[in-house]
C-alpha cells in the first residue's frame, strides 16, 4: 500500500490538506469516516519547519530587527552573529513544533469537552484530525507572511493579511488588529461547518464553539501585545 501524504487518492479517497482549501465540505465527511493523523501531521511538521526556518533567517537580516540581533550577539563575545544564526533558526523551528503540537492537543481537548456539554459524543481522534487539517490555513498564512518579508521587506512582526498591516497601531490595539486577518476569519467559517458535521451539532452550537475559539485567539494576542 502506498503511503498517503495527506492528499486524496483515487483508490481510496481520504481527507486531504489541499482539499480543506478547495472543497472543505467534502473533507468534513471524509475526516468523520477516516480521521487521518500521522501522514498529514508529518507533512505539516515539515511545512512548518521550512517556513519557520526561512522566517527566522529573514528575521535576523531584517532592518527593523538587525539592531536587536547585534545587541544579542554582543552579549556572547565567544560567538559571532554567523555562529549564532543556525542555533537561532533551529531553536525557532523546535519552538514552532512545540507550539503547534500543544495548540492542536489543547484546542482538540477543549472542543471535545465543550461538545460533551452539548450531550454529543465524538471521537477525540476525529476532532484532532479535523484541527490538524484545518491548520493548513495557518501554514498558508505563514507562507504569505514569509513571502511578504522576503520579497517586499515588510515588517515580520505584523501579519501581512491582518488589519495591523493596513491600520497603523501599537500596543494592545496592534495585537488585536494582528489577530483579525483573512485566514482567521476563513478558519472561523470552516470550523463552524466542520464541527457541525463531525460532531453532529446544531448550526447554533457549532457557531458558538467556533466564535469562542476566535475570541480566545483575539484575547491571547491582546495579552501577548500587552506583556
TrEMBL record:
Q: Please identify the protein, giving its name as recorded.
A: YIP1 family protein
What InterPro entries does the annotation carry?
Yip1_dom
Q: Which UniProt keywords apply?
A: Membrane, Transmembrane, Transmembrane helix
One GO cellular component from the entry? membrane
List localization entries.
Answer: Membrane
Entry's transmembrane regions = 36-54, 87-115, 127-152, 172-194, 206-226
The topology of this chain with respect to the membrane is: Multi-pass membrane protein
Q: Which organism is it from?
A: Thermoactinomyces daqus
- Please state every residue range assigned to the domain named Yip1: 19-220
